[in-house]
Every structure is written in structure tokens, then in C-alpha cells.
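Protocol check, entry for the methods section draft. Step 1: assemble the input record (protein sequence plus ligand SMILES). Step 2: submit for complex structure prediction. Step 3: store the C-alpha cells unaltered in the notebook. Ligand used here: magnesium ion. Step 1 record:
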Amino acid sequence: MSDVIVKTTNLTKNFPAKKGIFRRSNGCIYAVHDVNLEIPEGKIFGLVGESGSGKTTIGNLLVRLIEPTCGRIQLNGQDILDLKKSEEIHFRRKVQMIFQDPYESLNPRLTVYETVAEPLIIQEKRSMHGNEKELLYALESAGLTPPQDFLYRYPHELSGGQRQRVAIARALIIRPKFVVADEPVSMLDVSIRVSVLNLMLELKDNFGLTYLFITHDLSIARYMCDWLIVMYQGKIVESGNTEEVIQHPLHPYTRALISAVPIPDPMVKRRRVELSEAMEDTSKPPLRCRFYPKCETRSPICEREYPEFNDKGHAHFVACHGV
Ligand SMILES: Nc1ncnc2c1ncn2[C@@H]1O[C@H](COP(=O)(O)OP(=O)(O)OP(=O)(O)O)[C@@H](O)[C@H]1O
Ligand SMILES: [Mg+2]
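Step 3, stored output:
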């Protein structure tokens, strides 16, 4: 197994649940609860699960867009939550995020040059001018060719796919090691998704990147990821090698998730399991397994205690009393 680049220990993020016309705080949303991750260097780690399961919250925590309620995060063995100012600059260079919506993530008033050069100006205290060579290389690496045609364009002059490539060039320009990609193709036209995914695979090899790849689309996860983590209501319920998890899902939630979507592999036989629409109320501290109310194979212990995360062989882990 390769070196671990990112490690989390009991990572937890609660948001205040605001209800009513005065938006008074009324309990907590346990968006991410006690999450332990080890992301190996050079791999693509997929985070999958339904809407609201806490995927984006984990991504935002790992790049420090938000701070955890409790728990630890390490990057290359160093705790990133209490960095000195000088170490913080170094950290910001090593991690980058690619967001879901290329229409929102680019400033409409900045040219491609200004957008992509911004990290150099902030991180390396450079001036705006004189960065053409690096910019052209980053744009070309992101598949915007010929790159000089794009330098002085504004986001409104670009297609969704071209905007996402600009966002990728911007993330790459300071040579990060770890990139969180949050549903990077879900807002793009289906016809161009594969080319952006292939670009990301190519960049991983060329730039020596490690990705946390967030998606709710299992066929994309299967195409991209070496490893899968399945989340349900803020908890990791299963993890393992991508093919192992997809072909031999152990957790009842993963089985339901896989049976609910088409995954293009005719060798996988699937029986459809119904996932009810209503989400469990997460405003109370959960003691039981969070999938308990919807589980087809539940037993009394599932209501009393949250199951341990156990290795079932082949580095396939699952948190379920029934497996
Ligand atoms: N800033 C916030 N304030 C309050 N609640 C939040 C905030 N951000 C996220 N949440 C809540 O935390 C939970 C997890 O949200 P998150 O966005 O991480 O889910 P997700 O898995 O990324 O979902 P999606 O697939 O829809 O993007 C949800 O219940 C969400 O409403
Ligand atoms: Mg999200």
C-alpha cells in the first residue's frame, strides 16, 4: 500500500439546525460524524452516497473551507488544524478544490488570465504580469488549445466544459498534491463529461496528484476511482476497492444504492431494493445505526448501538451488525 497523504481521525461537523420563521437554533445536523479516512497517495478515492449524506462537507473540511466541530485532519503526517501562518501558506499550495458548478466558481469579472494567475499572486506574492509562460502551460495541460486564444476571454464567452477546464488549470497552476473534486462533471453536458473525466485521469498521472472524487453517480465512480467510500447520513457505512464494493456490496444501504442505478456492466446481476424518499431526522444525536428505519435486514441490536467498522477481508470494510 502506498503512503497515506490524508488521514482523518473522528472527523465530525455539526451544523445548527435552524427552523421556524425566526430561524432559531433547534438541535444539530450531524453532517459528518466520527469519520476515519486514510487516503493513499497517487490514488483516486471516491466518496459516494445520496444527497445530504455529507460528501461536500467532508471535501470542504479537508481543504479547510470550513472547520470541524471536532476530530483531526493530517496531511502527510502533519496536523493541519493548528498550523502556524507560514505552514498555512504551504498547506494552501498543496491542496486544491474543483467545484461542482463552473458557472458559479469563476468570477465573471475576471479574464481567464486573471483567474488562473490569482493563486500565483496570492501564494507566491507575484505581480499580475509576466506569468504568461506558466499560464499557457496550465491552460494547455487542461485541454484549452491553443491556449493563447483563451487568455483574455471572460467566463461568459466560454462553454461549461471550457469553464471547468479553466477551473482545473487554476487548481493546477500551483502544483498541488491533493485535489478534492466535488461532482466536477455533474453540471456539464453529458456529451463532454467523459472528456473532462479523461483529462482528470491524465493530469493525475502527469502531475502526480491524489484525488478525493465526490460523486453520487456510481458509474462515474466506477470509471474513475480506485477505492470507494459509501456514506449514509454523515457516517461511512462501507469502503473498499471499487470493483469489490460494486460487485460484492455488503451493507444493505450500498446494496440498495447499487440496485437503484444503472451501472454499465452486464456481468453485474442486480435486484432492485426500494430506498424510501424520506430522510431520517438527523436533528437528534444518533445512537442506532442510521440506516435502521429503512433496513430490510435489521435486528434489535441495530437500534441500540451503532455497528463497528469491520474488515471483512480483501480490505473491504463495513459497518453493519448483520454482515
Ligand atoms: N452550511 C450549512 N449549514 C447548515 N447545514 C448544512 C450546511 N452545509 C451542509 N449542511 C447540511 O449537512 C448535511 C450534509 O450536506 P452536504 O452538502 O455535505 O451533503 P452532500 O452529500 O454533499 O449532498 P449533495 O449530493 O446534495 O451535494 C445536509 O443535511 C445539509 O443540509
Ligand atoms: Mg455535495
